[in-house]
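Same chain as my last thread, 565 residues:
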Amino acid sequence: MEFLKLFTDRAPNRVFLSILLGAIAGASYALLIPIVLTSIANSTAERAANKAMVLGFEVTNYQFGALFAGICLLIMISRSLSQVLLSRVALDATTDLRVKTYRAIMGAPIAEIERLGPSRLMVAITNDVGRIVSGASIVPNVLVALVTVTGMLVYLAFLNIDVFWVVVAGIAFGIITYQIPMYIGNKYFERGRKFVDALQESIRGLIYGTKELKLSKAKRERYFSDILLVNEYAVRDNTKRANTIVMAAANYGDLLSYFVIGVIAYVFVSYHAVEPAKLVGVVMALLYIVGPVGLILNAMPQLAMAKVSLRHIKELFGSLEQEKSVDHVVPIAPWRSLRFNNVCYSYTNGKNSFSLGPIDLEISRGEITFIVGGNGSGKSTLSKLIALHYTPRSGDVHFGETRVDRDSMNSCRQCITAIFTDYYLFDRLLDSFGQDEQATIDRYLRELELDKKVSVEGGKFSTIALSDGQKKRLALLVTFLEGRDMYIFDEWAADQDPRFKEVFYHGILPMLRDMGKAVVVISHDDRYFSVADKVLVMEEGSLLRTEYPQHKRHETSPLERVAAI
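reply #2:
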């Protein structure tokens, strides 16, 4: 029912038409046996009298043969249309589900994304949605099989009502006893699914921590045995148990159909008089529904896994908060400074919690502001508040005369560009750049000494397989092209060689300041603090003090300073 609701929400009319066509196919399947039995029951004389030549072949009982062929054609057309319609709706529905997850992630606050972690989100999108797609793909066949079974039961009721009740009793007994192992199997599926998130995180550790693991045999073996393999084997063992139980249940369901046939053929006839012709029809009908029943039962494991994944996605993304900001963007009034008034922020991640503030500060355009402090002092949290990635728990943030609230947040964000320590370098320029900007791009590539490594064609980088320092320089090029009013750099120079550190601190930052940009830098390079106009010193979530270094501005132009360095 959950899958049908997934489909009916997407295209109720097409789902109804698909079910109707499936019902026609199933009912037509059920008509084939009565037609064959009726034609066989005709006397030899009747069969001889009803012969005709069709395409050079002599056909006996040609009226029944024509009816049989017509029904077969109807089955082929209606079943194909039913499956095609529902499979297309299924693909549309699962694609919509993926798109909703994408939009949910895009619309969630950064703090929520960090709380959940990338592993859980990746597993949900790749693993869970994949299972839902697999489950949805078999729903059309299951529906046709269900209608076929229903049609054959109606035919059994027409042949012999007592046989019908015996078969119904057998099916009811099978459903009840079948649900017990299926319930146990589902529990193992759910238990295995819980370990998938941990396994994904373990794999991330293996990939991103390879350099560290290679340097210590003890660490490597412990990581493998105590973390990676524990989760791997937990997923494997629970899935194996679930598959074993569910497959055994499916085979039990197959055998149950033959058990019912045996009861009717050898026990039922001892207590009820059944004509041989009708008994043959009953046995043929029961043999006929073995296939559809087997298809339904064999689909149960796949549907069970898909059901678990669908429930997990709904729970995960149902709990994912969404930003309450207005998506529409409009230009904000010209601004000279960003102001924090009594801003406080706090978060809890498991047993860990952190509070920042209250903070009052002002960051002005045409100034370089450094944020400094020890590890855990709140520098990165403050930078994300400045970038409007975090929403204050209390206090006010103003861009000039524009107060940052749900109506203006996204508009204010358009003034900001940032390179955080965990930045992601896309393989192309996502903003629109015309051919006239190509010369500017090429100039920046030369000045950042990337022209021998990277080229930009059609807005796409030729490669991003670069060193960490080169990647950050390429990310810097992107921020130059964006031309925003505020630049935030989180330890940008940490991966640069000494010469490019000089370029960054004594060339690029003053250049941006002279262009009227508000520049915010998180840095541990205390020998460059004199570059700043203002230094915000953080300690344990509080703004301890504000320092104003005395420095002499160069008389040369920013580009001349960069070239000289």
